Hints:
Radius of gyration: 22 Å
Distance between the termini: 38 Å
Number of helices: 2
Number of domains: 1
Shape: rod-shaped
Number of strands: 0
Largest sheet: none
Amino acid sequence: MLAFILAGTFSLLCIRDLGEYLCTAGGLPALHPGGIPLFIVRGTWRAFLVILALLAVAAAIECSMTPLMVKSAYEAAIAGMQA
Length: 83
C-alpha cells in the first residue's frame, strides 16, 4: 500500500515541478519540449527510485505469498468438502 501511496505522491511532485518549470520558462518565446521531462526528472529521481524499490519488494512478496495462500485455501476447501 505504501508504494501505491508514494506513487500517487510522485505524480503530484511531477505536476508541481511542471508548474514550476512553466512559471520560470513561461516568458521564453520558444519552450523546448525536451526540457520539461529533464526538469521534472532532475527534481524527482530520488522519489522515483524509492517507489521503484518498494514496488519491486511488493511484487516479490506478492509472487511468493499468493500461491501459498491459494494452496492453503484450496486445501481448506477440499478438507471442508470431505468432512
